[in-house]
């Protein structure tokens, strides 16, 4: 009898030990899953945004990208809009917002009524009917079910055109111009091509008296540095935009 009781006791003790071990293992698995959640959830939103802008008071960032990548007039464009915690690219949930899209002041889409997104990101389908620059205004009036003073994030989107880059022959011209191998007017002809094709815009000018030699020397220096890759296209654009006006003797408006 004592042997039987001892066997029952040993069996019961082993079962209890096994159950404790199973519970401990289950608890460890649960903790492990909790630790993995941030790595599972956030990469789902690790998209490459075409643009990220802050709302007018900086409470949120707004990221946007499109499907198709180059919006056009032949098929609907999906505007993929995410509301982000400032400076983090992490989704901010529960946003009250409105969206509208305009071209030259005319509505292309919206304005929609105040809408709530629980996950913090939305897809807006828009059918564009014209190519060219459009403005997207996203207004935010609430975060996490609490109203806030209206803040706006404004973006521009060029419909029907891929992002343009400066052709290599323009850089060749810049190098020759910097080395005095071609004259000012020859170089400006290339700049006019950039302007005509929307790659570069010139600032407002006031008509001047005209001059044959009014281009500052530092602009020509920059042209050579740009051709050699020492400064980037955006810096070069801001400089060369002044050259056509300078050759005409115009004054650049601030």
Q: Quick one: biggest sheet?
A: 5 strands, antiparallel
CATH topology of the largest domain: Immunoglobulin-like
Order of helices and strands: HEEEEEEEEEEHHEHHHE
Q: Give the class from helix and strand content and strand pairing.
A: alpha+beta
* Number of spatially distinct domains: 3
Query: Percent helix among the residues?
Result: 25-40%
Task: State the gist of this model.
The chain is an alpha+beta fold. 35% of the residues lie in helices and 29% in strands.
How is this structure best described in words?
The protein is of the alpha+beta class and 254 residues long. Helices cover 35% and strands 29% of the residues. It has 3 domains: 2-43; 47-159, Immunoglobulin-like; 168-252, no CATH class. The chain has 6 helices and 12 strands. A hairpin with a 6-residue loop joins strand 1 and strand 2. Helix 2 (168-178) crosses helix 4 and helix 4 runs antiparallel to helix 5. The N and C termini lie far apart (105 Å).
Topology:
Blueprint: H1 2-41, E1 51-54, E2 61-67, E3 77-85, E4 90-91, E5 95-103, E6 106-109, E7 115-117, E8 121-126, E9 132-143, E10 146-159, H2 168-178, H3 184-196, E11 205-206, H4 217-227, H5 233-240, H6 243-247, E12 251-252
Antiparallel strand pairs: 1-2, 2-3, 3-4, 3-8, 5-6, 5-7, 5-9, 9-10, 11-12
Helix pairs in contact: 2-3, 2-4, 4-5
Essential attributes:
disordered C terminus; 6 helices; extended; 29% strand; five-stranded antiparallel sheet; Immunoglobulin-like
């Amino acid at each position: 009898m004592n042997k039987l009781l001892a066997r029952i006791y040993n069996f019961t003790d082993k079962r209890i030990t096994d159950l404790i071990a199973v519970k401990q293992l289950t608890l460890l698995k649960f903790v492990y899953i909790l630790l993995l959640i941030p790595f599972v959830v956030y990469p789902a939103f690790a998209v490459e945004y075409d643009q990220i802008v802050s709302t007018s008071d900086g409470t949120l960032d707004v990221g946007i990208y499109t499907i198709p990548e180059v919006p056009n007039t032949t098929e609907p464009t999906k505007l993929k809009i995410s509301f982000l915690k400032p400076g983090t690219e992490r989704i901010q949930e529960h946003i009250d917002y409105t969206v509208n899209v305009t071209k030259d002041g005319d509505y292309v889409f919206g304005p929609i009524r105040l809408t709530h997104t629980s996950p913090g990101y939305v897809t807006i389908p828009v059918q564009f009917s014209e190519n060219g620059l459009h403005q997207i205004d996203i207004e935010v009036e609430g975060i996490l079910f609490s109203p806030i003073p209206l803040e706006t994030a404004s973006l521009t989107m060029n419909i029907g055109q891929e992002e343009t880059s400066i052709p290599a022959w323009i850089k060749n011209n810049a190098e020759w111009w910097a080395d005095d191998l071609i004259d000012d007017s020859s170089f400006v002809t290339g700049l006019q091509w950039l302007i005509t094709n929307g790659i570069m815009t010139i600032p407002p000018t006031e008509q001047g008296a005209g001059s044959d030699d009014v281009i500052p020397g530092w602009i020509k220096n920059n042209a050579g540095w740009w051709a050699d890759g020492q400064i980037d296209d955006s810096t070069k654009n801001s400089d060369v935009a002044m050259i056509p006006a300078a050759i005409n003797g115009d004054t650049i408006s601030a």
